[in-house]
User: Fold these one by one.
Assistant:
Number 1:
Amino acid sequence: MHNQDQALIFESSTPGRIGYSLPEMDVPELDLSSLLPEGYLRSEEPELPEVSELDIMRHYTALSRRNHGVDSGFYPLGSCTMKYNPKINENVARFNGFAHVHPLQDESSVQGALELLYDLQQHLIEITGMDEVTLQPAAGAHGEWTGLMMIRAYHEANGDLKRTKVIVPDSAHGTNPASATVAGLETITVKSNEFGLVDLDDLKRVVGEDTAALMLTNPNTLGLFEENIVEMAEIVHAAGGKLYYDGANLNAVLSKARPGDMGFDVVHLNLHKTFTGPHGGGGPGSGPVGVKADLIPYLPKPVITKRGEEFVFDYDRPQSIGRVKPYYGNFGINVRAYTYIRSMGPDGLKAVTEYAVLNANYMMRRLAEYYDLPFDKHCKHEFVLSGRRQKKLGVRTLDIAKRLLDFGYHPPTIYFPLNVEECIMIEPTETESKETLDSFIDIMIQIAKEAEENPEIVQEAPHTTVVGRMDEATAARKPILKYQKA
């Protein structure tokens, strides 16, 4: 974590130097031995660095500048929609009436907050084509688990206990089979055909009386729209199963197509992706779940409803799967998403889809000359390249990703989905300018040429970052997570 310009804070320590001091206590010192067991009391002072407040501020500010975020650079992370977070969302989320409410306040004193949540639910119902929405789940995978638990409860309520299998495509997000497992269900893989879409014959083979659901992203993880989705829904529904929509790629179809109209029974959304809530280093997120009418009884409780002119939490849900999160979702992220939807409007959301798809196809066509294109057809919001051509020259996809760091770009998703060799998955989003896209494309072309003419510079990358090329296996298996004296 350090180089010639920035020593670790421990190495900056000078005996006797302090950041601040407090006045001497004018009350008797507390005897900790009366409060804590002897084994928990220190026998000597902790070995902490002794630095001034100015030095400590400069140290942590310098560390913060090493982080990469969408506000500091292009973030083409395929399948994750890392788009710009409008600052108006932040301003609204900081309104006193939103930022200072307490989750234990009486409903009568937070009617404005409840109205916003209720209104957000109505917007999401319209956007997805569902019949009801819960805002409780804390993130996408949490929403997946919530939706699958409702599907499981539905089958159990109908006495259909044999339905324990969830079908997932071989290009599915890794959270799909993981969420199914945590929900107490099993997963079965359905293969993709030569066009990168779900193989209908294989789907017919694996679907049956034990099918609880088909879990699907549309567009799929390859950035391709599942054009046979209506027929797929008919196949699963005819067998008594449900369709689950992983909303990670909803950015590709906003105001153009609705999961509910495709035949899906459950959908989760990533408000921290499609609706511009910040990702926040792994959280907080927000993963609302929408359902069709026959699954409404199983929604997590409480459900926000409107009684007359009053907004209330409805706990009278005897078939509910129960509460899935303390209080009611990540309120601040919900406020940001609501602000985004209201400020964009229907036409703005439609433009999101159009520009996201345009940007992805523009980049794909410009890069297809220099990298292998596994599926040579129009994509949606993201696309997949393969580094097979470069691998034959001794340059792996991992090397390409590391080389991108030298130019200040966060690498795209690599080696996923698993059904594409040396996979490079890129999602430019609609918020990036053509100049940014062209700059990234030029660097990708440069790296492709380096792989042919000077492969060592790619194989040994990165060269300009604080941390250089590491031993990946040792870093993963034996990470050093604390400061160690030399």
Number 2:
Amino acid sequence: MLAYILRRILQSVIVMLVVALVAFSLFRFVGDPVSTLVGQEVTIAERETLRDQLGLNDPFPMQFASFIARAAQADFGISYRLQQPVMELILARLPATLELALVSGLFAFFFGVTLGVYTALNRRGWTSSAIMTVSLIGVSLPTFLIGVLLIWVFAVELQWLPSFGRGEVVDLGWWRTGLLTPSGRASLVLPAITLGLYQLTLIMRLVRAEMLEVLRADYIKFARARGLSNRAVHFSHALKNTMVPVITITGLQLGSIIAFSIITETVFQWPGVGALFINSVRTVDVPVMAAYLMLIALIFVVINLIVDLLYFAIDPRLRIDRSAVRH
């Protein structure tokens, strides 16, 4: 187990280095941040002085080595646009993105598993057919269009929920949350549904497919022959074995929710990290863009590592296979 963990950590470090190289190389040659920072009246000499101060005239290997050394200390420099430390900007907006991703993930997982089990156990009913048909909306429609439709129905026509912003937040010192206020919770509903609908559909269809396959297995037939109730067979045996691949997909989808929340945050003007990244792209704010990609890569790597360890702990066949290889 320890060797497996160390090997996965080493692989994660290599992935982070590759992502850092790609991100830094990409943004190093995209646009000129000096042109964004200064006006047309600035002389060429003043531009060159600013480039020297920002380290833009240093050789590429030196710039990359300096970037890695500072990134290892969670120091991504100063934002060209806002003239503030990048980590302060990200940490100030990270709670909004994480809360949105967490609520969306819980929404997708709970309803995805529930509807997946229901449609598998009642696959010939008209309700299951209707659910499977409606679920195509979550796959076929773009995220921004779903968000716009929800705004039109629930914010414009019915006026039940707010259409933008995070609502009132509570400052806990180390965290700013909207979950403790009515307006904060109301503001979270539409973006959470928009962001989680696609993942809900994937989880539901995966659970349904896995559940149908497990219900045809021999050990389920033996369990029924032993006289176990349908509840025991479905939830104690079938669902337990169904959840192994579901955990893997759910973990990876949580990373996707965080990474691809940019569109949802833009539609609902959600003050998260994604909106910060979009504004940084417009102004060629290289430190913020590079830090964002590094953060997303780190989230994916950590989630993937946790999922692999959970998969290793839940599925005894992996431990048996590795023991057999050693012997």
Number 3:
Amino acid sequence: MDDGVDFIQRLEQDMCMKILGYLEDPSDLVRVCAVSSSWRQFVISNGLCKEVCLRMFPETSNFDHIVEIRNMFEPTETETDDSAEWACLEREHRAYASLSRCLTSSTRKNCILDAIYASSTDNYPEESIKNTLEPSDRVNQRASYWSSKGQIDPTVSEILIYELAATLCLITEFQVHPFQAYFHFGFPIYSSKAVRFHVGHPKVPLEFENDDRDHFLGVRDFSDDKFVWTHSSPEFPMAQVSFMNQLQTFKLPEPVFAVGGILKVELLGRVQTQELDGQYYICINNVQVVGIPLSPAFDVEMLDEHQKCTLKYYPESVDLLLPPKSLEPQSSTSPSRFHRFSTSLRTWEQMVLDTFRAAGPLIVDDDDSDYDYID
């Protein structure tokens, strides 16, 4: 801000919104907040971090309320009406800025925690869905895979349901490894014709003791009317091949913000018959979901059937989710978006200078002792 001209204070709100709208990452908006108190107030009061998050991940519009929890206790609000409103804006600013940082900095991993249900199982528990959690097709010298029951009709589909590692995940791709029966003549591959993925949450919390979970895999019914599916992927054709435990990868057109912690894998159609009985089977060796589980820094609490939920933000756990700084991607040749924005901003500042030079310099408050800066 050469000669003390602050465009945030001089220009109309719409023009300031247009200028700051060139920033695509809420983390950059947090850096803008470190420039001066007027910039910080403008960013927070206009909810710019939330606006960018909504643009990046439309599913965040389901967050009806944000609760910030420190030391595992929810703070007691005793502020006046005005201060309470500002405190709410600051809380949203911190939550959405931290959320975006975790989404862009965290290392992607397999987001599946456990298996919940299979629509059918041929030989339970030897061919349980639990086997699909293991990447190897052999465990303790025995074949490891899930198998459906045989069907005469090749159009009959199957469903596998899993619990994700967090109730809030950013998912980028799915991976499935169809099982190749190396103990059958001709080494047949029992794949489905296609696959589709759904994410969502249960209408009523799934409650069962750990000792009973394996039992439920064989007998409990988890039909669609017990879940709300908030996102469904395109239908992906499956290749009828299997190369040395290689997963088939299905990339989503755009990353999906999975709210609710439940995954459904829909295996569509059948290809391979078993020589023994002539029936069609689907057998799966391994299923993985690649993405970012946002626990323990974030959690969600479902509110109603309209998919609205409360976002729980644990600021003290953010660093536990992020990788060490030495492992974060860095580039020594290309400038950051914020630096590119700063360069282009000088042109705007010069225009403001030319327009308002006659008005004289302004005194800008640079007291940033309470800024929430995220590196």
Number 4:
Amino acid sequence: MRTSTLTFLCLLAAAAGPTLAQEDTTDTDAMTEEVMEEMADETMAEDAMEDETMSEDTMAEDTMAEETMADDTMAEDTMEEEMAEEETMAEDVMQEATPSLEEIAAADPNLEVAKNEDGEVDAMVMLSDVLFSFGDASLEASSLETLRGVADKLDGVTAIEITGHTDAIGDESFNEALGQRRADAVRDWLIANTDLAAEVVTSRGVGETDPIAPNLTEDGADNPAGRAQNRRVEFTLPDAG
């Protein structure tokens, strides 16, 4: 009877062994899953922290880039303002350095000025008889000294016009062409002997159409003094007024 009881207990123990082992394995598996879940949660938290750090770094870089762009814009604005000031100062210096037509004319007895109805100087005049022989458009050697004095004072002007006038003797079309050739001769000399560019100096001939003195006296006689005044070359500065 005792032997049978022992045998029964041994059988029970043998049967319970696999069950306990299975329960231990199940517990171990459950614990492993919990650990893995905790590790996954920690990894996600670390990834989230890294993302936030990267976002903050990106924002900091964007802020630095915006500040750099702002600095560059301020530098460009400053440079533009300085360049504008320098250009204005240069223009003011050039205007101060370039004398008026009245000042140029005052330096040579062969030059005088013409005034408009308001009494303002609108042209500098050089008599054609000083510049040319009668009816000719070749510059006289004696006139070159006066032209050099004019040329020395014209540096920096942005525009100058040369106009050729004649008296009323001869055909009107011939006088207009003569006035043009004389204006061209003065223009060409200025371009060749100064720093003035060709596009700065223009010329035109008006012939006898714009007299400043009578070509004839009141009784119809010839007026040599008046005709001499009409034979002239005028220098005007279109941009001066």
